[in-house]
Amino acid sequence: MTATSIKDVLKSPTLFVMKILGMKPLRYQAEFLEDNSPKIIVVGGRQIGKSTMLSWKAIWKAFTHPNEEILIISASFEQAQLVYSKIYETCRNNEFLSTHLQKITLHETRFDNGSGIRCLTAGRKGTFGRGYSATMVMFDEASIIPEEAFVSLEPALAVRGSQLIMSGTPMGKRGRFYKVWESHFHSREWSAYQIKSSENPFVSRDYLREEAQIMTAEQYAQEHEAVFLDTVGRFYPLDLVMDAADDYKYSLERKKPDGSFYMGVDVAHMGTDETAIVVIFVPKDDKHLRTEVSYAKTLLKSDILSSSKEIIDTARAMDCELIMIDKIGLGAGMYDILRATFGNKVRGVVLEGKRRESAYNYLKIMLENHKLRLNINDTKLLYQFGSYTMKESVSGSLRITKDTSSHDDLVDALVLATTALGATLNYVPFEGLGELFTLEEQYIQNMLKRGFPKYLPRT
Ligand SMILES: Nc1ncnc2c1ncn2[C@@H]1O[C@H](COP(=O)(O)OP(=O)(O)OP(=O)(O)O)[C@@H](O)[C@H]1O
Ligand SMILES: [Mg+2]
Q1: pLDDT digit string (tens) for 248-283?
Q2: Which residue has the CA at smallest separation from atom 23 of ligand 1?
Q3: Do 219 and 286 have their domain in common?
Q4: Residue (of 312, 295, 297, 309) closest to 255 by Cα position
């Protein structure tokens, strides 16, 4: 490389990525890299290389400009680690960059020009201590980062000439990410990108066709066409779901001995259905009944015997107190198999009519009363809450309807797990425990606020 060409390479982030990092940015990645607007918003489909281009921009900026402080904020610890490990590996293993490293730790990469990059987790509270000052702040997965994180980092960006970047896949018309996206149509303050999955040459048409088959039209529009959707009419409002989401990891081990695990099993029925299992955990003697989803999995499509083996292994590993299974259709066969292994720890329920409504309501009430923690890393489960809507029936009453073309198996399994919990509390009835009793919603709300009593009176 001649002296002039090195200068050119360092000046252009695209050339830098190509010549020094040895990668080939896609067209929209190059456009983003070259954009030095003070405010940039990227709204993109899944897996189009958003996080990758953020990390490239960070490395280029830090390496070629002195005294830059760059923060990359992710929604979860896992995601922040993923982004940071890419930066760490790239800088350490690159012959050219590594000679200019001043310091490289598991949290921070700093060059000898005084510039550094840090990757932080927003978490659910989203607050950062004071004392961060930054010349560039990038929010990865901005749609699931809580409002507080944006507010808390605003003072950090007081530096003149600083850059603010928000990037992510849409998650409903809500939150800061959406507001900024909306505002860019009215003001020219933000440089905005909207990138569909189909614009990524690595994403095959076949894959997108398959996705279109298993998702609702709305979900496809959101995840692959990068469109913000209305959230009205949802039975589980998006804010309710996102408020319950917290940053933690699923584990199959029984790491928490002081409490009980309840499992819900939703067996595949139709062609596109999948069998799903969800395990929830309730701490022992917790009057406030703060439960969390400890494990959730969609099983690969296979015969009932191999699925049952996996369910049995999971229930054993977590030593589940009770396993609730929907006995409709193939569920009946699974019920028999599980029953043969676990005896009366396995309960069957037919979630239809009022029983179904009250089971879905029960889950909603738990969320409304902050009784259930969901895993922010399990976007599949979080998204599936969107398949349930409220529709007015002929008689004028509101009914919960489910989009049959989409996957909602995990939420159904979760409903069954909370039904299992309810069953031990003698709330939601199940086979063998008598008739269905419907409780006034307000009554349940009050109960939840006061802490769950062991037994609720029958009406
Ligand atoms: N220009 C490129 N050339 C080759 N591979 C790329 C390129 N850009 C991204 N990738 C790869 O594509 C995959 C997806 O990239 P990345 O994780 O950055 O996407 P994303 O949009 O952040 O995805 P998600 O929506 O899941 O967060 C990764 O394996 C990444 O290494
Ligand atoms: Mg990403």
Answers
A1: 999 887 666 788 899 999 998 765 678 999 999 988
A2: 47
A3: no
A4: 295
